[in-house]
Design a protein that fits this description.
Blueprint lengths: L9 H17 L7 H11 L2 H4 L14
């Protein structure tokens, strides 16, 4: 079975932690594992929205 590992640092790590805490709040305190949260985010991800130009210059959904 393939395995992929990622490392987030700085603001990215803080953002991931904040999302995990928000999901836990919505679940009544049950915090998702890193793998579960990553799966949840991938389920919501649409690559066409993230990069609409070949050079990656598009801003996704108004976010910067």
């Amino acid at each position: 079975m393939p395995r992929t590992q990622t490392t987030l640092q700085g603001a990215d790590s803080e953002r991931f932690r904040d999302v995990r805490e928000r999901v836990a709040d919505l679940r009544g305190g049950a915090e998702p594992s890193n793998a579960e949260l990553t799966r949840m985010m991938m389920d919501q991800f649409d690559p066409a929205e993230a990069v609409s130009h070949p050079d990656g210059s598009a801003v996704r959904a108004g976010l910067q």
